[in-house]
Every structure is written in C-alpha cells, then in structure tokens.
Amino acid sequence: MKPLLEKVMPPDDASWAWLDRRLEDAIPFQWHHHPEFELTLTLNSVGQRFIGDHIGDYDDGDLVLIGPNLPHTWASRDKRNPAAPHVARVMWFHPNWAAGLTALLAELRGVAELLARAQRGLRFSDGAAAAVRPLIDELFARPAADRLSVLIDILRRLADDGDATPLASPIAAVPQHSADRTRIDRVLDVIHQRYMEPLAIGELADVAALSASGLHRMFVRHVRSPVSVYITRLRLGEACALLSATTRPIAHVASDVGYDSLANFNRQFKAMKQMTPRQYRQRFAAGRR
C-alpha cells in the first residue's frame, strides 16, 4: 500500500494548521505522509503507532513529533473510557516556517535542534507530555490569532526533554546544507513513497546523482543500514499494521507491501519479529480481548 500524500491546508488567517480529531469507533490505519512536521497528542486511546520502520504501542497521553515526509499512522484497539471518543490533537507546520523562526530568534536555537532530531520521529517522555498537555489544551481553546505564541512555547518546552525517544531507524547527523543532506533527503523521499514497488539501486543512485557503490556508502554512513535493509523494515512495518488492523489474507498483505513471494515474506517477517505473520495477527487479536 502506497502511503498517501496528505495535503495540509492552514486556515487563511494562519501560517500553520491544527486539528482536534475525535473518533467514536476507532483511529483507523491510514498510512500517509506530508511535507510538514506533525506534533500529535493522542488521548483516551490505546493501540499501535507506525512511524517509518518503527512499530510501537501507545497509550493515553502519547505525544509524538514526526519529521517531514516520514510515513506514519496510528491504529487503535481500545479506549480508556468507552463512553468518550478517541482524540488526536494534531499540529502541523512546514519546515521552511520553522527554519525562518529559528534562524531569526536566538531564543529558539533549542527548537531548531529538536526539529533536527525529529526527522526520524520522537516520542516525548511521559513527564514532558504531561507538562505541556495544559498548554495544548489552551492552544485549542484560544482564538486562531492567539495560538501561534502557545505553539512556540510548547516547542520550546519540549526542546528541553532529554528523555525524548527516537522512533524510526537512526540517521546520522548530516550538515543541513551539505550535498549529502540533499542527496539523502531525495533518496529517502523516493523510498518512503515507493518502497512497496520494485526499487532498483541504480534508480535510487540516479536520484542521488551517485554511482550505486557511492549511494551504498553514503546510505550506510548516514542511515546506518544498507538500502535493501531499510526498505525491508518499511515493508514489514506496514505489514504489521495491516495484520493488526485488517483481516486481509496474509498472501494479500505480502503483495500489498511489495512481496512477490509469500515464502520470502514469511521468512523475512519471522526474522524481524521472531514469529510468523499468522502468530503476530493472533497475538495482536488476543490483546484486544
């Protein structure tokens, strides 16, 4: 399944966007990406989050910051209070917007460092999430014109969270304006949008304007894994989401995420998860009871 490109449209009177999303039945699996940063607070909901090649459980109060063009979704399995809806309070802002603010204001230097770390997704500590939750509540209660200062305050406070946990596969620090930064960004954008398709190393090397061996060396240096391993983790991460959130036959799931061979899918899945796809589905279903 190709991650859908979500178009985020700020209101006419704002430079960034927000959404107070309330869902009675469930937070559905909707694999998508967008060029904006996304800060999401999830309330009254329990399930799994999928960010790049990361798969992890979430609970009430989960607060995550996601970098641009990183595929992601949440998939709920329960509510803490059955009488209330699942809630996702989402804030989106474009990298250029953030870069302009952090370059202009020395006081936001820590926010710039936070956003660099968020390229692979960050889950904030329970303490930090609880500390900014009243500010997030205040942000959504204020008139649109008054929300910007609150958002900046939230980001500034989160920048001090030394216990924030990176989520997707590590990408080594690359100077923001270096040739490698541009090349890595281009290659990752193509991979994140097309990893379920056959992707030849030569094609990705052309995207990076490098030889195949040059791409391999750069990717291992900065992403710390070969291209093929990174793509496999993305495919299997989405497979986990489909197995846990749908009843699609396993053979169809394998095909959806880019496997022509069911045997190869089963072998790689077991190597990563230490269980078969069928066992994974059964284990997740048992957790719902």
What's the gist of this structure?
46% of the residues lie in helices and 18% in strands.
Q: What is the secondary structure topology, with strand pairs?
A:
Elements: E1 4-5, E2 17-23, E3 32-33, E4 37-43, E5 46-51, E6 54-58, E7 62-66, E8 72-78, E9 86-93, H1 95-104, H2 109-117, E10 122-123, H3 126-141, H4 147-158, E11 165-166, H5 179-194, H6 201-208, H7 212-223, H8 227-245, H9 250-256, H10 262-273, H11 277-288
Parallel strand pairs: 1-3
Antiparallel strand pairs: 2-9, 4-7, 4-9, 5-6, 5-8, 7-10, 10-11
Question: What keyword list fits this structure?
Answer:
289 residues; alpha+beta; Jelly Rolls; Arc Repressor Mutant, subunit A; six-stranded antiparallel sheet; three-stranded antiparallel sheet; 11 helices; 11 strands; 46% helix; 18% strand
Count of runs of 4 or more consecutive helical residues: 11
Q: In one word, what is the shape?
A: globular
Please state the structural category. alpha+beta
CATH superfamily of the largest domain: Jelly Rolls
CATH C-level of the largest domain: Mainly Beta
Give the SSE order as H and E letters. Answer: EEEEEEEEEHHEHHEHHHHHHH
The largest beta-sheet arranges its strands as 2-9-4-7-10-11
Average of per-residue pLDDT values: 88
Unreliably modeled segments: none
Radius of gyration based on Cα positions: 19 Å
Distance between the termini: 28 Å
As for the CATH topology of the largest domain, it is: Jelly Rolls
